[in-house]
Write a structure and sequence with these properties.
It is built from ten helices and five strands; from the N terminus they run ααββαααβααββααα. By secondary structure, the chain is mainly alpha-helical.
């Protein structure tokens, strides 16, 4: 892909791509004549750089880390782990909408609430447009509104769920760093153990989502049981009142 296509795919700018390349954070592209072409290796590296920046690493620190990896480990090993760690957890492709298109999809939602949704991560401003990282979430929002749930109530629950799930995600990442990655680093990052680390990450990724799903299902069973009992109680009181009248 060209540098423009690469920037669009990872949600950055061509200026940033060239900056990272100048700083040595990206492997060189393949050149055909005067045109530079990038591939999935560059996508994985850019996603990794973005995540490290979110955690407070400077570009200089990231370059030093990547160079250290490159000296101790083979390129194939490093890129394999990079691609796995930085790969998106959702397989959905992002969707780009104009603000007018978004307003047409949600005609009953006030503009202020749509602006509020931009802070939830379901909608991400991108210039004059809006990027939908996981379109299924937006479709679920439409289904909730069609079922009669108010937009403000739906956003309230979404924000609560996001905050709680971010804590859970941070906990799983901290668990991996503490129990798997830090012992690997303390041992001097032996190259022969990197493939084991990669296989461990491959196993933990689906396990993390499965644990959350199973606990959520268990909690929904409990909450639904409590709600059913309350509904039956109220229905019984209503029926009793009708007979008394």
């Amino acid at each position: 892909m060209t540098v423009d296509a690469l920037a669009r795919r990872v949600g950055t700018t061509t200026r940033n791509v060239r900056l990272y390349q100048t700083r040595g954070l990206l492997p060189p592209p393949t050149r055909r004549g005067r045109v530079a072409y990038y591939d999935d290796r560059h996508v994985a590296r850019l996603r990794l750089v973005a995540r490290l920046q979110e955690r407070g690493f400077s570009l200089a620190a990231i370059a030093e880390l990547l160079n250290a990896w490159g000296r101790k480990l083979t390129v194939a090993d490093v890129l394999g782990l990079e691609e796995l760690v930085s790969a998106p957890w959702s397989e959905e492709l992002p969707e780009l909408l104009t603000r007018e298109e978004l307003a047409r999809r949600f005609p009953a939602v006030e503009p202020e609430l749509l602006e509020r949704a931009l802070g939830t991560g379901v909608l991400v401003p991108e210039g004059d447009d809006v990027r939908i990282p996981i379109p299924r979430l937006l479709a679920i929002g439409e289904e909730l509104l069609a079922a009669g749930v108010s937009p403000s109530a739906a956003l309230d629950e979404l924000e609560k769920a996001r905050d709680r799930l971010e804590q859970i995600a941070d906990g799983f990442v901290a668990l991996f760093l503490r129990e798997v990655w830090q012992p690997f680093v303390a041992a001097g990052m032996p190259p022969e153990r990197l493939q084991l680390i990669t296989r461990t990450v491959e196993r933990l990724r689906p396990l993390a989502t499965e644990v959350v799903q199973l606990i959520l299902l268990q909690a929904l069973d409990r909450a639904s049981g409590n709600a059913t009992a309350e509904v039956m109680r109220l229905a019984g009181e209503l029926a009793k009142g009708g007979r008394e009248r």
